[in-house]
Fold each of these.
Amino acid sequence: MIEVGGAIIDKDTVIAEPVYLVLDGDIIERYERGTYPCEGGEPVNLIRKPNRVAIPGLVNTHGHAAMTLLRGAGDDLPLMTWLNERIFPLEDKLTEDAIYWGTQLAAWEMLVSGTTTYTDMYMMMDHAAKAVAESGIRAVLSVGVVGFNDVSRENGMQRSRSFHGNWHRQASGRITVTLGPHAPYTCPPDYLTEIAELAKELDVPIQIHLSETQTEVVNSQGDHSLTPIALAEKVGLFDVPTLAAHCVHVTDADLDIMARRGVRIAHNPQSNLKLGSGIAPLPKMLEKGIVVGLGTDGAASNNNLDMFEEMRLAATLHKGVAQDAEVIPAAVAFDLATAMGAKACFLGQLHGTLKPGAAADIVLLDAASPHLLPQHNLLSNVVYACGADDVRDVFVAGRQVVSGGEPLTIDVERVRAEVARIKEQLVK
Amino acid sequence: MIEVGGAIIDKDTVIAEPVYLVLDGDIIERYERGTYPCEGGEPVNLIRKPNRVAIPGLVNTHGHAAMTLLRGAGDDLPLMTWLNERIFPLEDKLTEDAIYWGTQLAAWEMLVSGTTTYTDMYMMMDHAAKAVAESGIRAVLSVGVVGFNDVSRENGMQRSRSFHGNWHRQASGRITVTLGPHAPYTCPPDYLTEIAELAKELDVPIQIHLSETQTEVVNSQGDHSLTPIALAEKVGLFDVPTLAAHCVHVTDADLDIMARRGVRIAHNPQSNLKLGSGIAPLPKMLEKGIVVGLGTDGAASNNNLDMFEEMRLAATLHKGVAQDAEVIPAAVAFDLATAMGAKACFLGQLHGTLKPGAAADIVLLDAASPHLLPQHNLLSNVVYACGADDVRDVFVAGRQVVSGGEPLTIDVERVRAEVARIKEQLVK
């Protein structure tokens, strides 16, 4: 039982008065307006926080968690210089130990900033999954695979299959596994088909990068006479539920394909800006009825994992581009960062809300923060004013993982020491 | 004496190792690398914070502080609907008491998020200045004036003159006063000339809004056959040092005028996005050698006063627009938010740095925050990863005003209560 001074149940239900949430294990059983009527002497498991506002945990629909280790290792560089001269040489040195500690750092950063679910596509994922299991966060994980040659192709298939066997629905159901072909420019068409077949066999969705940069689209047109999205459809990828990250350089025809095939999009506004990729047409995606979530991308291209920033940027950036202040109103941005984001990464219909039956993934904000003063409009304050600094308590699957801004499940001193050690190894 | 684990002295001097700052009253006397060599038994006024990183206090070059009272009172609306139906009716009800408490709320929010200097153009400014004096923040204040008729014109001149007499260089020099003609569309040409004459007489600069929206520029062309910036030059405004806010819709000729006349610009990226005004050509402004600072604008159009967000947005937004990751690198964004911002609002050459002789306006960030891990590049981490949640201790003019994230100079419980009371009066 969690009693708070206000709550945003979902984008349509904003309660600016006391309310309590009744939990049943890892699920929200119901919410009731008012304060909890404690009956004399009866012991109840009640957390009473009148100076908090409850919101659903934020859902980060695209990222590469252990890239926290590469935060600030290369900035203000053209994409290919950044990748080839900074990121790839460092990634070559990443060990299983590094992936584990890098993911611990990411889980810490995400939990204390109000993210309770994230998606990941990276390497040595058993060690990422271990960090997820231990930190208490919820995650949709995939082995990132590329098909440069027969060895990498075969490795990708084997590792994906084995990772699925090891971790799908593990950690009390907090981990779900998808497949993770990196992109059409790193996975040849017949390999994408093969991966789609494996996804059907395992009955899991796919995460992939699509149409992130203009260059990628131009090259795809040159090589295949198709956009990356048209190519992905042609090879059968969209026969499987798919979450496509970025989709910055898309045609109307691309978006029509995605709408028709039910492809979800992870919109990463800050990463797309920082890498100079461009600005994805979010309003048009939503007009076409595409399910969109928000993502931070990895911390090497963002450079943090703060979903409040992505939510605010999704709400403001497209207003500026369109010169129209009515584009992406606060409720839509909130939905993208919570319930629609959860749909984008294949979680249940109620996920990302505080409705009865939803997973008990709950974030309590400090109602006494200047960002929540005064309260003309609670939803607006959360979307346009609040930040990571307002997150006080966090619950995932009914378990408290952050208290008073401090993580309960992560040994932060140890993470600091290990990350410092690994950084020295990387730059040696 | 403040000893820390690292410091950014200015955009060019980043010290990722222990360093101590020696203060002389309200001034930084010098900084030295290493830890402070305490001599046996000798008492020193030493604050020892090895787990902090020092940066200059951030400088917010445009805003309307007491608009915190209107935070969330109107969002996702076209500019004129927003102003006429939401903001103006509420502003009509603002009292001197409201201005005082709204400014206290703003000072609280700014100090705990690392802003030590801000600019203000609003109403009943004696009461704003009182809140500045008491809260310990530094401010460049102006009475916002409009010239709709003879009464408003005369009031504007009288109030500006009296406010200057009351507050210029007061609060131990933390307050400087400028004149604040609102905009060319609210102040007729001959009134702008009159204000420029008063500025010359008082020997103070001017703050004004210029070319914020496309409509404003179109109307100015229609009414005067000149852009707002060309008009401002013609009427003699730029004969006085001027800080122009926004400058979103500017021609090359406009920017050439500003460069030639030494006009400063306050770039407000988030407010310009949120109100649907557009995206100002920051890279071109800097190429032309114009001095630019960053601003939040008022909390009714942002909706917070967090300069870390503006610094990050200035660094990322223009990369995305230009599709060029090399535009506005981290050091430039840092400079805009600190030293160049200080020049933009007419403070001393050293202001916004931690160099010897600079004002002792210092922010200490939590070096143990996930945002500062690992430290591949301290400056990048501060610009691209840190946020208000990393601010721990803040000093203005050598006096500590925030400790461990909590303001020392502001009665936050009182502010909360007064702001809640005033909000009820406003919406009644």
Amino acid sequence: MEIQFLGTSSGTPTKTRNMSATAIRMPGAQHWALVDCAEGTQYRLLRTGLSPMRLRAIFITHLHGDHCYGLPGLLASAGMLDRSEPMSIAGPPPLRRMIEAIMDASQLTLPYPIDWVALEDLPGRRVLPDMKVAATALSHRVPSYAFSFTEAGVERKLDIGKLKAGGVASGPAWGAIQQGQDVVLPDGRAVVAEHFLLAPRKARKVIIGGDNDRPDLLAREALDADLLVHEATYTDAILHKIGPGPQHSSAAMVARFAQAAQVKNLILTHFSPRYQDIHGALTLADIEREARAHYSGTLALARDLDRYELRKDGSVHALL
Amino acid sequence: MEIQFLGTSSGTPTKTRNMSATAIRMPGAQHWALVDCAEGTQYRLLRTGLSPMRLRAIFITHLHGDHCYGLPGLLASAGMLDRSEPMSIAGPPPLRRMIEAIMDASQLTLPYPIDWVALEDLPGRRVLPDMKVAATALSHRVPSYAFSFTEAGVERKLDIGKLKAGGVASGPAWGAIQQGQDVVLPDGRAVVAEHFLLAPRKARKVIIGGDNDRPDLLAREALDADLLVHEATYTDAILHKIGPGPQHSSAAMVARFAQAAQVKNLILTHFSPRYQDIHGALTLADIEREARAHYSGTLALARDLDRYELRKDGSVHALL
């Protein structure tokens, strides 16, 4: 699975960081999905290989502007490209009302249908062909959610030794068995596919969270997750200075949770603009240092346009 | 007067051009005004000397997304800077409904008041301290307007020769007379200030138009305008290919109008993304060539972040 960060700043943009938006797709897939769509997301797309024409679904974690104000413009631009494929959109309920009010006032008509999906319907709907999606409620000033993406249809491998020992000759039967189809051999024997397939590997799973001051709410989702992408708006020191009102997480809060939940890979994002990239009284290095002090897994701090791959073995690597 | 282009593409952005937004201010003024506010305008501001804190008023020409979808984000960011000064906003009536729907759905509260100004009230309202503003209806698929900015309070110059000939000695009296105040001299003579002031120079005037397929609607406004900023979405050839449906102007249409109206300076903007900056089957040079064929004044094609100065003598110059 691949993810690409299209915006990693919290609240307001900086010269190097747009606001929240993250792309996700299966490697090699033409289509892709988007989590959050801050203002400027369509500008970021111009610098990636991702086209609004191939965007299958948009998931909005919550309705603060720095997570959704780019949605009407992206929808409009997809329309100007003469897109005809439906676009699925899932988010907290006022989202639809807001988008429809904007479309009405700006007389925006789209040449493709929008398929509005209720968050609670996500597990039962096949919004994406190759990933299962579910929403988990978080804790923030407005209703906020995390989206879990689990790869669907993990490919099975033949148990070659067992096939040979069982006298099943290689040929079309092997292909059918790999697809999970039971077959009848030329000698009349019936073969149950499941008996000749190796145990499936674990399906990869990524959680991309919205704003949240209680990472522990993701404990159940994290049980089988390989990668957690979570906000770390500031360090503990700044959080204590600001107080709990904004309901964001510190790097330490997220790192401690990821450590306790044994999530092997953690990518932090959604940084307060007070943290400079390199030079400054406060820098991203402060966030990183605090997170590393509490987390021993693979850690990264996202930058705009960074791409990461979650491999089949559950390891995460930066893509160049 | 100074203007700076924050976006010059039509409909969708390109790698080098954001969508419509133009800043205007008097030289040296702390505050400034904005005409249109496409998505990404606040990102462009990060690359200028213009702050959302000093933005006094926003004028929206029409409600198509490529002219106003950046407004909620800019308002939100000004709020996060703890702005307290009121912000005046003028635009076609559904604008207020749209912005309030967005603020409601995204639970955006601003720490400063918005002063919604009806377009027809602009001449009577002092929205800007140093420029008079008026709206002129244009012709487009949705109600669209041009905004005229005329400098207020043109400074007067003393008629030194007449003062000396009249025996008015230099001193505090000269300062008072220049401010337009009648004075009584030490010898008891009463001096009417107006008699000792040179005729005021012409107040500078800039017209910044919205989308429009009838430049002639600006004929009356253009009578005393020094600079016209107008869309030239395509060349005649492309306009004829597309047909009149989108209701945009070609370079030739605008150039012919500016020539007939004797406007001395013309800056074209809002170019279709099909025109490349330099290399391509269609380039901005096509727009420029067509405009020059019909217009003999000072012509420029705007690029993002370009700054221009309209001097007191009515000439326009690029600022570096």
Amino acid sequence: MQTRYFALRDYPKGTPSRELFDLRSQELPGLDDGEVRIRNSWLSVDPYMRGRMSGVKTYVAPFELDAPLEGAAIGEVIESRHAHFKAGDKVRHMAGWRDIAQLKGDVLEPLPDMQIPEQAYLGVLGMPGMTAWTGLNRIANLREGDNVLVSAASGAVGSLAVQLAKARGGTVVGIAGAADKLEWLEQHDIRAVSYKGKDARQLSADLKEACPEGFDVYYENVGGDCLEAALNNLKVGARIAICGFISSYNEEAPAPGPSNLANLLIQRARMQGFIIFDHWTEYPHFLEEVGPRVAQGEIDYEETIEEGLERTPDAFLNLFDGANRGKMLVRL
Amino acid sequence: MQTRYFALRDYPKGTPSRELFDLRSQELPGLDDGEVRIRNSWLSVDPYMRGRMSGVKTYVAPFELDAPLEGAAIGEVIESRHAHFKAGDKVRHMAGWRDIAQLKGDVLEPLPDMQIPEQAYLGVLGMPGMTAWTGLNRIANLREGDNVLVSAASGAVGSLAVQLAKARGGTVVGIAGAADKLEWLEQHDIRAVSYKGKDARQLSADLKEACPEGFDVYYENVGGDCLEAALNNLKVGARIAICGFISSYNEEAPAPGPSNLANLLIQRARMQGFIIFDHWTEYPHFLEEVGPRVAQGEIDYEETIEEGLERTPDAFLNLFDGANRGKMLVRL
């Protein structure tokens, strides 16, 4: 049986060009004992993948050139030589960017049966959702009534973060760009602030207008002017959870940081980076808390879907243009 | 009775000029009930005072123009109408920058009797010492065996921080400038790294050489290139306690921050600002732990002393030229 997969021809400098992603095919060997073959139905593309394209070890090894790229995926078992899996089982795994995956059964996660569409386990109930929940609760120690600011607030992570924060009763402000994203935020009773065409100074002023008392928590996905503006609007004792700095992932040279880090001192504030894989043992706890709310329709999650394996690199590259609302997915 | 005091003629922009500090005198009114008159013997000058000269409220109100400046001081009661104090008592208070202070007795702290020179209560056992201890223990959660980096490591705060850290058994590296400061560090078995004539890249490389495994804790007094270099040398789970950013206090315009904040994410590190006045209720605990070690000569503390009230502004301004080793004091 053939698998078709994307491989990277070279490590990009700056914004990756579409041509670096090469669609290849390969004959799969027969299944070994303990192995499972899966037909992928949904692939995830996520901003963190850009870090694995740098050729440098950060918190995770870089992608290998000319080898199948990796990422979260959902699929159906089509053949199994592992005792826990049989044909027809739905599973989640990390062998994305391809149509057919062949893996040790030990690395597969069976999908829970919660009466929700399977692709939700790549988004609101997958890594992005878990990231939103962990950043707020475990890193920023979100408390009842906290005022919360979220950047990239209509993205896969941000759109859950604003809703989880809102449920705790404080003022929630979301930063986004496009008009439809701002509208989505307003529909959910989130105060929406656009970053478009603004420098840090103007964005600071607009955040102040949206929440004059300042923020107890800042959920950071973007960096750059968003971070600088947020630092100007902290309450005493504020906590910043750094989930990502998407504004800088495609920069060829390091950009200067915010000029107002002294606000951490003045406001006795804390800024902490985290990586979701460190917290994955808490996934069952997250699922138990957030899963039923998703199943009952209390949490709105959006998806931006590209069709077909061939579109996977385009879906990925669109992340950096802000083209997605909610989770960016590829349907096979 | 006359008091002689320094007042600020105007709020400085950039490095304050000596002429902004005006020595004045004033006839003191008679003592009211509950008041105490003190002859100051030692005055403290500290970097944080620059923040109070900005004319802007940060975490503490700005100094009033044309009024006596304030700061920690040690003196002897010469007249008292407060039941707890009598002539001859040694006290600490915040009415520095003057020779005679007249205050409500309620704001005075009697000096503990620990057989150490009284001016130590302005330094190693005063606010700077308490700041070192709090930053390490309460903000950075210093643990046994931690590798610790301290900037301005021979200053009033840093020189205690390196010794407290060293006692916990890990590698301790101190950043300083002048040769005698580096030597002082080496004498205390602290690995000394000079920042002189280096950019952040070179300083990063030198820190890496001094402690190849990286740092669990960074005690930050300086900012600028020191922070950037430290961020390049963090271990996973590192904690940064931000005590101050002395490199920026005299800047006229905000300078860009470090370009490598993404290391907070990669290393899942935490950076937290603190202000010692928030923690002052812990002072007795600090004194109990550190006081006996100072009395027994286990902790080396240095002093840089200017003589005479007239020299107080010079002592203060010298802080920003790195002219002090250990605590900068004025003896009256």
